[in-house]
Amino acid sequence: MFERAHLHLAIAIVVSSCGGGAAPLRDPPLVQEAVAQSDDLIVPGKRVGPFRLGMYMDEVIRKFGQPLSRLDPLDWAARFDYGNVVLNFTGNAAPWVDTISVYGGSYHTAEGIHVGSSMFDVARTNGPSCQSDWACPGIQFWHDNRYHTVAYINVRSP
């Protein structure tokens, strides 16, 4: 019984230190510089730190460098992975950012909501209907059902 209690305690410590999710991501150097010159605020329907909705693909590459990975599944859509932030593009002739997904880092809303926040705090600050399906204008909170925490945040035009 004593050994089992220690095992449960060790598992709880490991899970809580990992936040119940993957290891923290590291932003590429150009992204770190841009964030240092900007802020880490998530503004629904507008931006995440230095990443703005509506930025053209060439502007993104010029400002943040090449992404860690790039996916171009269709002629008119692309996805750039910059570590804690993933940019989704639309438009075939001159693609622009239409959705910004936040998976970690220090990015947060004005109310302090960030990846790893409690979904109860999301409901308290934004209302209970704000938890999925773009019910809140310009922002969507995807959650981890097991831990009732924010797994990632999407920002797009309202």
What is the string of SSEs from the N terminus onward? HHEEEHEEEEHEE
Please compute the radius of gyration using only Cα atoms: 17 Å
Strands of the widest sheet, in order across it, are 4-5-6-7-9-8
Number of helices: 4
Shape: globular
Largest sheet: 6 strands, antiparallel
Decide which structural class fits the backbone: alpha+beta
Q: Would you tell me the overall average pLDDT?
A: 81
Poorly predicted residue ranges: 1-21
Q: Can you tell me the CATH superfamily?
A: CAP
> What is the total number of structural domains?
1
The number of strands is 9
CATH class descriptor: Alpha Beta
Structural overview:
The structure is a single chain. The chain has helices at residues 2-18, 29-37, 57-64, 119-126, and strands spanning 42-43, 47-48, 51-52, 69-74, 77-81, 85-90, 96-102, 139-144, 149-156. It starts with a helix and ends with a strand. Strand 5 (77-81) and strand 6 form a beta hairpin. 27% of the residues lie in helices and 28% in strands. The chain has one domain (25-156): 3-Layer(aba) Sandwich (Pathogenesis-related Protein p14a). The strands form two sheets. It has a six-stranded antiparallel β-sheet with strand order 4-5-6-7-9-8. It is built from four helices and nine strands. The chain is α+β, with helices and mostly antiparallel strands and 158 residues long.
